[in-house]
Sequence to fold (133 residues):
Amino acid sequence: MLCALLAGGCATTQAAPERDSGPTPLTAADALGDFGDIDYCSLLNVPKVAPGAVAVPTYESCHATAGPRTILIGPLAFDSDPNLKPYDYPGPVPDGVAIQQSMFNDRSACTRAITFADGAERTAIYLATYPST
Fold:
């Protein structure tokens, strides 16, 4: 009887169950839209992070000065920045996204990069806080 069941199982071909591929990674294009038309100031909630500051947009960034500090978001970077190091971000991030710490100018600025894994290329957008001059 057992042999009949085993033989019966071999006689029919069943399709392999579909693998659960998990969530689709968030790409920079999905998060930011057209790279040539990014409104960096829309990515920075100025009243929350710098009460009383005014957001000043430029073509490749947005900055806001509040008292002794300036907050900057942008620009985009499209290659591997050797200054980016792993950072143990305590909050949740979407699949395909990492928060990294920039070691460039790390004694005077707190800089993080939101990095998107867009296939073989990495795209990062920078967020920095540093003393106003």
